[in-house]
Amino acid sequence: MNYLEITGTLIGLIYLWLEYRASIYLWIAGIIMPAIYIFVYYRAGLYADFGINIYYLLAAVYGWIVWMRGAGRESKAELPITHTPPERYLPLTAVFLAAFLGIAWILIRFTDSNVPWLDSFTTALSIIGMWMLARKYVEQWWAWILVDVVCCGLYIYKELYFTSALYGLYSIIAIFGYFKWKQMMHYESK
What is the DSSP string of the chain? Predict the structure, then answer.
């Protein structure tokens, strides 16, 4: 399985570079990468991460459609980078908490996971982050920074060293991505 982890890592780097640039082509890598990691995470016993990659496949299709549609059906303008509307925070928090607790319960009750709380935390926050990315909200980067830092440590613990290195790099680039998107958002608004 090591070759799959290395391939997933390489595609993950391409994905991150495309996300940093706010390129619509990130969604192609966003379909391939989770297809690979479904196998990697299942074998490692990271069942929530296994499950989230099924969600990532579906979310990548959704994101591709949303970004292709752009600013509107009548307009050919690209979907702009914006701030998350304040009215979205309460529903996003509710979805996060429900997913976090529900996934943790499933992992504790039905699997042999030895990291159910961390696995469910990163999975629930990734659900939120992916949806925010599909909507092109700049604050999606904050969700990814937290997910990436926690995953980096979790994957070291699970001896997925290539994947851990990828998430360590994700953490650093996510910080730069946040500032890049803020800059792009500023230029788009002019």
Answer: -HHHHHHHHHHHHHHHHHHHTT-TTHHHHHHHHHHHHHHHHHHHT-HHHHHHHHHHHHHHHHHHHHHHHTT-SS--PPPPPBPPPGGGHHHHHHHHHHHHHHHHHHHHHHS--S-HHHHHHHHHHHHHHHHHHHTTBTTHHHHHHHHHHHHHHHHHHTT-HHHHHHHHHHHHHHHHHHHHHHHHHHHHT-
